[in-house]
User: Which sequence fits this backbone?
């Protein structure tokens, strides 16, 4: 089991290096990045001498492989450079934002899992019923909503009209400020989880071993709790892992909408200030986080599924 | 004992209807819009709620929201269609060639696909937009370069399963060139799943366009993209909520149509559901 | 009126109909099927795939699913009609009094659950055991089906066992609570030939020891005739012939049975009669929506005459204690 886990972890490292390389290349090779971009639209004009000094300081004139080697070395040791704007280390800037972001993302995902998975389950146990139809119509609608519009509407209804919840901001970090952005962010994955859970449960309910379970004289409830649940879970876990990706993309927009002090809003602000080290750092953080989640999902698999645990 | 299944069904027709409506609106925009979406600003008409003269109301500059939404459909659909054409071209080319030739090229493409899947696509698109700057063409490029992994995977998997089959080997023995086999023998067989992926992907692209424009990184005001309209509307949510309601509803209905259509098409074109995961 | 007190058979299936609900019409997937199984008796049901033998078995378990439903007839277990039993009553019957073994040992076991637990469930469900006691008894059950080192195997997952071992686990599950009837639906079809014989012997041995009756379902007439005392042959949803196993080989009465026997390769036959072609039955089983009028076998039958196309033959008793459904069984 440890061996399998070790192999999975070893697989992450090349992906990680590739991701770092990609982010590096994106910002170093394409036009319009870094210093050259700073005065492109005339909003930030820099004295050419200052620019020259900055280029030197950041080693932007060195050959590409050398720069990448440096960048990689710095990144691995946790040094993501200094922000152009505040001159503070990017790691420090991101560090301040990580906790709110994590809170939002996990709150949204928990909401999505709890509601989505149970909805999908109930729908699958009574296929064709009114509840099933309603849940699936709801699910495809949820998939078609843009999160920020939903957020805007929620904000209007619950914060401005009904005044039940604060409209934006982080507040003191309490639950009330978290609810609206988390719901806005969670509805999409919730809808997808409802659909995939339903499909997964229906699949499992038709499996031969479920017929075996019934032939043992088990009640339907026991068939579900003893045999269906875990098998359907294996399929659902994959989707949860994959959904984190789009969730984190959407989080950027939702954070911006609700003025949530997370990594996403830092990213957007930095883009507008053309603070490229910060942009690069934020993107790297997000990708690494996603990678970490997917590694966790892999580990969850190993725990749930004995076929993988014993290295098939 | 298998029974014939009702195919496509309601979702295909409702979805197809919504998509057709969006397309008609986009094509006939100059005919059905009441005013010019950008130029016809009139401060005398500022922030009028929806009513008989202005169906969806007007914004702070007195522009007719209905007309702006009508024209906005052009941007959404253009971004959706063009980015999906790009994605499909990239995905199919990489997937077909990787599956067909195998070897180091296959390893490389598989690695690249996994890398693409490791980066949340909206984040990737956002990075590209940050570098290229706002605008329709950068949007199309950003969204067209970042979501090809699904079609690539499906194409590759299908080629691998088709490659061993008799008629492909027969074509090879007959001396058909690799490219000819790929495009005349294999491509038609994987068209179904690819169309489903592209349809569903179009919905995703429209949502991404709206999100990026909302952030100010996509289409910039005054041009009427649904996302940029929402971006402007946010500040007036208390005084003029209709500014937010209608563009969002337009996005919702269009994407809903594409999702329903994709679901319906999948039942017809892709019965084994290789695309279920998208 | 003095009637001899007849021994009540263990299972009596009487005029069974199974309905298949299609989109526009409802068909009889199985009709007029009747047979009896005595206590401890092994009874065989033979036919090609799609003839309705498996769903007949499922109906005896009360496990027919959606497009299929019971269309009529009686299923009597030990003198008690069970065809209209409630869900709770079925639960007390299944596993406890009637158990079933399925064809695919690969998929019939839950891949995520250790096999010991899957056996132990039976004791928890039907005998009110706690899990610890149930696991101990599962180990014994594995020992009985001759799985080597059962104390370790109970913790194994299905994918760690071979097909034959898995089918042994299935047998252990089925026989765990000492059922009166074991239904075996093609229990060896998915296994290697060498393993097949072992599994059949094991089943026969255990059932004989416990006095369990067997309803053996297979497409393989040879296998069934070896194991069972009496055999019924099904074709297109109906029983066409039923005889003692020896008699059915010696004097098959229905042309379909004759065809089945002629298509079997026979050991020693070549040395006795020289090389001969195995005969096959021409044509294919008609689909359920297009059963022909009259005798359902008539399009494939060499002995077919006018009446076969018009009149459906009735079940006729044979002098030798059997039944046949044919106009020309002479």
Assistant:
């Amino acid at each position: 089991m440890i061996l399998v886990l070790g192999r999975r972890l070893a697989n992450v490292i090349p992906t990680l290096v590739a991701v770092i390389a990609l982010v590096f290349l994106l910002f170093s090779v394409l036009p319009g990045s870094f210093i050259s971009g700073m005065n492109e639209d005339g909003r930030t004009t820099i004295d050419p001498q200052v620019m020259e000094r900055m280029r030197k300081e950041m080693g932007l004139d060195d050959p590409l492989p050398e720069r990448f080697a440096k960048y990689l070395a710095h990144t691995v040791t946790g040094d993501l450079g200094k922000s152009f704007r505040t001159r503070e280390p990017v790691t420090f800037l991101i560090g301040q934002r990580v906790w709110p972001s994590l809170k939002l993302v996990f709150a949204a995902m928990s909401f999505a899992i709890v509601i989505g998975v149970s909805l999908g389950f109930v729908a699958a146990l009574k296929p064709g019923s009114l509840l099933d139809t309603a849940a699936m119509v709801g699910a495809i609608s949820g998939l078609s909503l843009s999160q920020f519009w939903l957020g805007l509407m929620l904000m209007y209804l619950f914060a401005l009209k009904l005044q039940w919840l604060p409209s934006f901001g982080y507040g003191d970090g309490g639950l009330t400020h978290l609810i609206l952005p988390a719901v806005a962010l969670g509805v999409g994955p919730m809808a997808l989880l409802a659909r995939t859970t339903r499909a997964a449960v229906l699949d499992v309910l038709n499996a031969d071993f479920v017929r075996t379970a019934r032939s043992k004289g088990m009640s339907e409830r026991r068939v579900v709790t003893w045999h269906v649940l875990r098998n359907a879970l294996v399929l659902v876990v994959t989707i949860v892992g994959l959904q984190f990706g789009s969730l984190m993309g959407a989080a950027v927009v939702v954070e911006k909408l609700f003025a949530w002090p997370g990594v996403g809003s830092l990213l957007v602000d930095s883009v507008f200030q053309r603070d490229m080290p910060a942009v690069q750092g934020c993107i790297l953080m997000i990708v690494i986080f996603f990678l970490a989640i997917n590694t966790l999902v892999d580990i969850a698999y190993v725990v749930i599924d004995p076929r993988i645990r014993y290295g098939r | 004992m298998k029974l014939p299944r009702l195919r496509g069904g309601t979702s295909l027709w409702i979805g197809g209807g919504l998509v057709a409506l969006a397309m008609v609106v986009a094509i006939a925009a100059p005919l059905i819009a009441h005013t010019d979406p950008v130029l016809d600003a009139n401060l005398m008409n500022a922030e009028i709620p929806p009513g008989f003269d202005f169906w969806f109301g007007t914004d702070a500059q007195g522009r007719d929201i209905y007309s702006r939404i009508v024209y906005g459909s052009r941007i959404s659909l253009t971004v959706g269609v063009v980015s999906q054409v790009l994605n499909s071209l990239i995905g199919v080319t990489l997937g077909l060639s990787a599956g067909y030739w195998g070897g180091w090229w296959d390893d490389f493409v598989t690695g690249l696909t996994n890398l693409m899947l490791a980066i949340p696509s909206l984040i990737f698109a956002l990075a590209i937009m940050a570098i290229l700057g706002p605008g329709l063409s950068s949007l199309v490029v950003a969204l067209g370069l970042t979501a090809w992994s699904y079609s690539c995977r499906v194409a590759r998997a299908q080629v691998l399963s088709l490659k061993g089959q008799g008629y492909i080997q027969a074509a090879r023995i007959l001396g058909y060139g690799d490219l000819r086999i790929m495009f005349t023998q294999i491509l038609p067989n994987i068209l179904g799943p690819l169309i489903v992926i592209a349809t569903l992907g179009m919905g995703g692209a429209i949502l991404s366009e709206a999100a990026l424009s909302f952030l100010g990184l996509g289409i910039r005001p005054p041009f009427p993209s649904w996302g940029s309209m929402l971006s402007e509307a946010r500040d007036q949510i208390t005084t003029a909520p209709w500014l937010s309601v209608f563009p969002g509803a337009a996005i919702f209905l269009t994407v809903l149509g594409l999702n329903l259509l994709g679901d319906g098409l999948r039942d017809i074109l892709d019965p084994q559901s290789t695309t279920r995961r998208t | 009126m003095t009637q001899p007190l007849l021994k009540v058979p263990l299972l009596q299936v009487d005029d069974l109909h199974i309905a298949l609900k299609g989109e526009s019409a409802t068909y009889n997937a199985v009709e007029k099927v009747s047979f009896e199984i005595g206590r401890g008796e092994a009874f065989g049901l033979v036919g090609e795939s799609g003839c309705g033998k498996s769903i007949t078995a499922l109906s005896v378990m009360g496990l027919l699913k959606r497009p299929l439903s019971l269309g009529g007839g009686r299923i009597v277990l030990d003198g008690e009609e069970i065809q209209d039993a409630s869900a709770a009553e079925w639960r007390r019957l299944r596993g406890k009094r009637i158990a079933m073994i399925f064809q695919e040992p690969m998929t019939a076991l839950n891949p995520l659950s250790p096999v010991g637990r899957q056996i132990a469930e039976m004791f928890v469900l039907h005998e009110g055991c706690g899990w610890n006691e149930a696991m101990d008894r599962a180990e014994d059950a594995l020992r009985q089906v001759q799985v080597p080192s059962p104390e370790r195997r109970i913790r194994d997952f299905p994918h760690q066992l071979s097909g034959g071992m898995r089918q042994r686990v299935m047998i252990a599950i089925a026989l765990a609570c000492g059922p009166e009837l074991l239904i075996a639906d093609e229990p060896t079809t998915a296994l290697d030939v060498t393993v097949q014989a072992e599994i059949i012997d094991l089943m026969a041995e255990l059932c004989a020891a416990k006095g369990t009756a067997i309803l053996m379902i297979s497409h393989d007439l040879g296998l069934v005739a070896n194991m069972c005392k009496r055999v019924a042959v099904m074709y297109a949803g109906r029983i066409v012939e039923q005889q003692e196993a020896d008699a059915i080989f010696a004097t098959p009465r229905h042309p379909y049975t004759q065809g089945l026997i002629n298509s079997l390769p026979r050991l020693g036959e070549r040395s006795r009669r020289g090389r001969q072609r195995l005969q096959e039955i021409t044509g294919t089983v008609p689909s359920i929506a297009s059963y022909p009028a009259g005798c359902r076998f008539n399009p494939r039958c060499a002995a077919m005459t006018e009446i076969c196309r018009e009149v459906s033959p009735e079940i006729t008793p044979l002098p030798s204690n059997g039944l046949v459904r044919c106009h020309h069984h002479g």
